[in-house]
Specification:
Elements lengths: L7 H22 L5 H4 L1 E7 L1 H4 L4 H10 L4 E6 L4 E6 L4 H15 L3 E8 L1 H29 L3 H29 L5 H31 L5 H33 L2 H37 L1
Antiparallel strand pairs: 1-3, 1-4, 2-3
Helix pairs in contact: 1-7, 1-10, 6-7, 6-8, 7-8, 7-10, 8-9, 8-10, 9-10
Length: about 290
């Protein structure tokens, strides 16, 4: 059995550096919000005349000529083109559509959807509220479940670690490749957090069961035993998920790529934070309380 608790300070330093680096990335680069949060219009069209790669810049120019600047124009695996712009009404779109047909020929309009800025602001507020409620709920549940608030607080710290890592990665991706965050990103983040907290609860449950059988056992030894006994299972589960998500990133197409990337980052971060952030922090807190 490897004495992983012996290196807890190293793990906590790595976690702290990771959290601070991620926070710095978010503060300096910011997050590129999608139209789900800022409001805007999403148009999907299909037609050979408008989706050729050498004509995308010309298509953008048609919008610009009508005083509308697309935030992105992306092809999908289904052979369609998704155009995102600031909010425009149906009349403005009909005007632009006429200009596109004049320049490129006929095409099929698959969808036209507009999200107002007020709805986008409401989604931001609901997202923040959901994360806060999740954190408070986990704090009370884990604290009650394990009869000790230390378990709840350290689990929340590990969750904050995962949130910051995901946000930091997407802040960098937004700066480098213009990747936007949307409701799919929020869904992926909350799913990854649930996966991470589940791992932490499994580890803590092993600590509780061991202490119940051997109440006089050294606490740090019990935590180390719990980490070693759950690590192989956690890594096996995480690697299975990582392999599937990696395949989806490579082969799944543009429409779900960044959703899957968020899940992938969260899965990797969560696999680390449970045994190497939450558990070491729990032992440090216990040592301080014991003195």
């Amino acid at each position: 059995m490897i004495n992983l608790v012996k290196y807890r300070k190293v793990f906590l330093v790595i976690s702290t550096i990771t959290m601070l680096s991620s926070l710095a990335a978010v503060l300096f680069f910011g997050l590129k919000a999608g139209i789900d949060f800022t409001g805007g219009t999403v148009i999907e069209v299909r037609g050979d005349s408008v989706i050729q790669s050498d004509k995308v810049s010309d298509l953008r120019q048609v919008f610009m000529d009508k005083q509308v600047e697309p935030s992105s124009i992306q092809k999908t695996n289904d052979g369609s083109l998704v155009i995102k712009t600031l909010a425009i009404d149906q009349n403005k779109w009909e005007e632009i559509k006429g200009s596109i047909k004049e320049k490129f020929g006929d095409f099929e309009e698959l969808s036209f959807e507009t999200i107002g800025p007020l709805l986008g602001k409401e989604l931001v507020q609901k997202t923040i509220t959901a994360v806060i409620i999740t954190g408070i709920g986990l704090l009370f549940y884990i604290g009650w479940r394990f009869k000790n608030r230390r378990f709840g607080v350290t689990a929340i710290v590990a969750m904050i670690h995962d949130i910051l890592v995901i946000l930091g990665v997407f802040a960098v991706l937004g700066r480098v490749w213009g990747v936007e965050i949307d409701l799919m990103f929020v869904t992926a983040t909350l799913t990854a957090l649930a996966f991470s907290v589940h791992d932490t609860i499994v580890l803590y449950d092993r600590v509780r069961e061991t202490l119940r059988r051997n109440p006089k056992e050294n606490f740090n030894d019990v935590v180390n035993l719990a980490i070693n006994s759950t690590l192989v299972r956690s890594l096996s589960t995480s690697l299975s998920v990582v392999f599937v998500l990696t395949a989806l990133v490579l082969l799944g197409g543009e429409t779900i790529r960044w959703f899957v990337v968020a899940l992938l980052v969260g899965t990797i971060s969560g696999s680390y934070s449970s045994p190497f952030t939450a558990a070491p922090l729990l032992t440090v807190w216990h040592d301080i309380k014991s003195k």
